[in-house]
Amino acid sequence: MNEFAALTVTDMPRIRRTIGSDDLRTFLRARTADGHARLDGRLGAVASAPTADDHHRFILMNLVAYRALSRFVSSRSHGETGPVAAMTKAGLDRLENDARSMGIDCDGQLGFDLPSYQTPEAAGLAYVLEGSKLGAKVIHRRLVKAGLLAPETGISAVFLASAFEPTDRAPADRPGPMPIFAALASQVEDEDGPRGRAVNAAIATFALFERSLDHVVATRDKKESSR
Q1: Is residue 210 one of the residues assigned to a domain?
Q2: What is the CATH number of the domain that holds 26?
Q3: Residue 148 domain-assigned?
Q4: With contact defined as beta carbons under 8 Å apart, do 112 and 68 qualify?
Q5: Residue range(s) defining the domain that contains residue 85
Q6: DSSP 3-state of 189
Q7: Going residue by residue through the chain (227 aa), what tens digit of pLDDT does each one get?
Q8: 3 belongs to a structural domain
Q9: CA angle, corner 181, sides to 207 and 113, nearest 5?
Q10: What is the number of structural domains in the chain?
Q11: Does residue 25 belong to any structural domain of this protein?
């Protein structure tokens, strides 16, 4: 009798294949393109010829979104400070600094939730948050070119300027523009389920920023009409 005949498929160790960061980035880019393009389109003014009001609206949109993300990540992290939690907190601190310096804020808050929050979802969030740094650099350069960062303008751009700094809590062995995403992506299993969860988290995050922009515009319009 063959000595292996008694072994069944379930007796064999499962080989866990993970997807590379470049592969997951490509996968996410293709499946989040619509939401990404829609948000970029709505932010066209601040990325091309910004005014002080455009910048205020941009900061408030991010402030509302980061507050929601920070509450969500904190509630799901059980007190642990992982790289996404640290990145979210650092971004929120900078946005609060900008808003306070310019004397602006936005009433109310938005909710954000996902069915689960594990490595695939964290990778989806990191894809959006780290990926936005490229756009932040463009906007910062536009503000400089427009003369809006001169001291007398009263414009604060701590959040945007941070895009030029090393990523918060970036793993030392993960050089490149998106080190936190790369580290998380290397742990995501190369299967439809985990990849799909990363996509859903990224889509939900893009949607949160759109909802935040809607909230800021509606809140500011309401204040204007009540004057």
Answers
A1: yes
A2: 1.20.910.10
A3: yes
A4: yes
A5: 18-221
A6: strand
A7: 444 344 344 443 444 566 556 799 999 999 999 999 999 999 988 878 899 999 999 999 999 999 999 999 999 876 556 899 999 999 999 999 999 999 999 999 999 999 999 999 999 999 999 999 989 999 999 999 999 999 999 999 999 999 998 765 555 555 456 889 999 999 998 888 999 999 999 999 999 999 999 999 999 866 765 65
A8: no
A9: 35
A10: 1
A11: yes
Whole-number Cα distances in Å, 210 to 41, 62, 110, 145, 221: 11, 10, 11, 26, 17
What tokens were used for 205? 């995050």
Tokens of 197: 């969860």
Tell me how far apart the alpha carbons of residues 171 and 133 are, in angstroms, rounded to a whole number. 17
Task: Supply the Cα-derived Rg of the chain in whole angstroms.
Answer: 21
- Model confidence over 175-212: pLDDT tens digits? 456 889 999 999 998 888 999 999 999 999 999 999 99
CA angle 76, 133, 115 (to 5 degrees): 25
CA–CA–CA angle 212, 217, 219 (5° rounding): 90
Q: Which two tokens stand for residue 159?
A: 């959040």
